[in-house]
Model the fold of this input.
Amino acid sequence: MSILFFLVAGMCLGYLLRSKSAVLAVAEKGMIWSVYLLVFFLGISVGVNQAVVRALGSLGLQALVLSLGGIVGSALLSWVVSRTFFESPRHEK
Amino acid sequence: MRNSFIILGCLAAGILGGALSVLPQAFLDLDLTGYALCVLLFLVGIGIGCNGRVWQVLRNQSVRILLVPLSAVLGTLVGVGVFSVFVPGLGLRESLAVGSGLGYYSLASVLIAEVGGKTLGVVALLSNIMREFATLLAAPLLARHFGKLAPIASGGATSMDTTLPIITQCVGMEYAMISVVNGVVLTLLAPVLIVAILR
Done:
């Protein structure tokens, strides 16, 4: 949980500095580049492990199945919400 | 879209570099990613805090609109939970953590890599990027068969930026606000859910 402290601290600082548009620009630049760097290092730590490299295909398949699960599940539940609360006759003009 | 290709490129370059061992082992042993992740989370926080839209959205929305992100999160977790039966290599907890990325692949992958292991981080990156791609491709189909909220729920955290244009094109501008609210709420929820599930 302690890792989320940084997220909350950033939010507070961002809120205090919200009138300064330069802050957001710098934060976004830093965000993009730290993601590039972190993903690159994630790749390195995967690449040095031959067993993981050989398993990349099946990891991709796992990822595909899980993303389909997420899409189907959220689409179905949103369909129920849509029918019940958004497109029911009560809300039609 | 462009950004997700760059990130996939970074992953591929890293894997290649790792396989060819371009970096000395001593450097890898330092494991700076933990610190870099703290910096990233801090910057993400600043981005959220600075973004006037976030506070505005959270202040003046009716309760009904919050049903959309709620259905997106619950639907994702139930769907991922059910589909995890077909993923022999992963436990339910790992699968739910990957699903909790909610399409926010950049943060989800590095956060999960740190808390749940590098391999799971790679699955999270691929899975959440696929979710964005699939939403971009299938938005019209989803809207036709599952109603106007479906592409929004499917887009997850990306419904406030990368998938917003295709969503409004499919379901109409009057749903743009719902789409942004959904994205904002899920962007806030994703890191909290991931840490809570993997803790």
Summary: Chain B touches chain A through 101 residues (CB under 8 Å). Chain B has a mean pLDDT of 89.
